[in-house]
Write a structure and sequence with these properties.
Bound molecules: the ligand C[C@H](O)[C@H](O)[C@@H](O)C(=O)CO, manganese (II) ion
Number of domains: 1
Helix content: 40-55%
Strand order of the largest sheet: 1-2-3-4-6-8-9-12
Order of helices and strands: HHEHEHEHEEHEEHEHEEEHEHHHHH
Number of strands: 12
Shape: globular
Distance between the termini: 35 Å
CATH architecture: Alpha-Beta Barrel
Largest sheet: 8 strands, parallel, barrel
Length: 421
């Protein structure tokens, strides 16, 4: 797109929004301050570097066999660097524990240390980005019977407690070195395919295991733990120990962060409407923005109604700094760099639309029962020239404008990912 065209469209958009009392430059500034925590696992179908040839377990599945997935740390970093060059803003990278730099050795989960993540910390520092972290309770023989921290066997529980303990210390070290708290997401796949009888017993064990490990106090200047619930997984259709009620209760009781994953609820249930409730009871919320298609299928995030509603709720709540936006999907059926670019850019477009909303004006209709006016303005806003503002933002940040990123990805595929056999 030509510079002149971008500027002209932007000037026109600016005028349109000004008529509604909206300052587009301020909206861009605010958008620029919202980091998106980019998940490292889209690049390699959640394989990681502990046992890359191993099976992906834990009730999640990456479907598809598109060529070019990252096979090494170097390839994964190169891919993430490419992704970062295609999107405006400063973002974060969310690492899973199985993505350590193990130097070709097998290091079991109860043995990992900060040193295995030092090269990630150094790399991130060089790029000027921050890291988040995830403990990995899946794809491991000690999780094969469906339980980890809530297993009846104390040896299994102890193994996973040690993993969690170490992950917290690794995340804290990342936070300390980057001078910004590292968000440590705890997702535990424990559950069963069919009619579990001992539901309470497993939940009691999960609670006890978490209580024990989380009793080690670590400053929130370095580490922010967050717990992620789930309704069901593949092979855990009937029972998941860490359900919504379990973790909502756990997070509220312990005054800690709660992760809401868009794919972890009933098929028609949305997380956008949970934000305004949970903000009243937990200090912070972590989002795993994903796209469930019929089930928790982890499709690439696109600009749909729920993504917009989610963004509106974040912005309208006035608590942007208490809601952390992270992505979580792993589509192996399409170009993986493209999957990242679409997901990040769409999330930003939704956030921008929310930031360009004349919220006070809309709110003013409510006490006056002017619900037609509210609805009509909301409809008008959908067709406002927000995309011209996004294009201008991309242009100013020196990243591809409009559909230019598609050709960049095709070039990268020709030159890099297609050569990975
Ligand atoms: C790989 C992630 O940890 C995983 O996707 C988790 O966050 C989840 O959402 C599982 O369904
Ligand atoms: Mn998730």
């Amino acid at each position: 797109m030509k510079e002149e065209q971008i500027n002209k469209a932007y000037a026109n958009a600016k005028e349109h929004y000004a008529a509604l009392g909206i300052d587009v430059d301020k909206a861009i500034e605010k958008l620029n301050e919202i980091p998106i925590s980019i998940h490292c696992w889209q690049a390699d179908d959640v394989s990681g570097f502990e046992n890359p040839e191993g099976e992906l377990t834990g009730g999640i599945q990456a479907t598809g066999n598109y060529p070019g997935k990252a096979r090494t740390i170097e390839e994964l970093r190169k891919d993430i660097e490419k992704v970062l060059s295609l999107v405006p803003g400063k973002h974060r990278l969310s690492l899973h524990a199985i993505y350590g730099d193990f130097g070709g050795e097998f290091v079991d989960r109860d043995q990992i240390e900060p040193k295995h993540f030092q090269s990630w910390i150094d790399w991130a520092k060089k790029l000027g980005i921050k890291l988040d972290f995830n403990s990995t309770f899946f794809s491991h023989p000690k999780a094969d019977n469906g339980y980890t921290l809530s297993d009846f066997n104390p040896e299994i529980r102890n193994f996973w407690k040690e993993h969690l303990r170490r992950c917290r210390r690794i995340a804290a070290e990342i936070g300390r070195q980057q001078g910004d708290p590292c968000i440590h997401n705890i997702w535990i796949p424990d559950g069963e395919k069919d009619k579990t009888v001992s539901r309470l017993a497993h939940r009691q064990l999960l609670k006890e295991s978490l209580d024990e490990v989380l009793s080690e106090k670590i400053s929130t200047d370095y580490l922010k733990d967050t717990v992620e619930c789930k309704l069901f997984g593949i092979g855990s259709e009937s029972y998941v120990v860490g359900s919504h009620e379990f973790y909502m209760g756990y997070a509220v009781k312990n005054n800690m962060m709660l992760t809401l994953d868009a794919g972890h609820f009933h098929p028609t249930e949305v997380i956008s409407d949970k934000i305004s409730s949970m903000l009243l009871f937990v200090p912070e919320i972590n989002l795993h923005v994903s796209r469930p298609e019929r089930w928790d299928s982890d499709h690439v995030v696109i600009l749909n109604d729920e993504l917009l509603a989610l963004s509106q709720e974040i912005v309208r709540s006035g608590n942007r700094d208490r809601v952390h936006v992270g992505l979580d999907y792993f589509d192996a059926s399409i170009n993986r760099i493209g999957a990242y670019a679409v997901g990040i850019r769409s999330t930003q477009k939704a956030l921008l639309q929310a930031l360009l909303e004349p919220t006070d004006k809309l709110r003013s209709f409510e006490p006056e029962n002017k619900n037609f006016q509210r609805m009509a303005y909301l409809e008008e806003l959908k067709a406002m020239p927000w995309n011209a503002v996004y294009n201008y933002y991309c242009h100013k940040q020196g990243v591809p404008v409009g559909d230019e990123y598609i050709r960049e990805i095709e070039r990268y595929e020709d030159e890099v990912t297609s050569k990975r056999k």
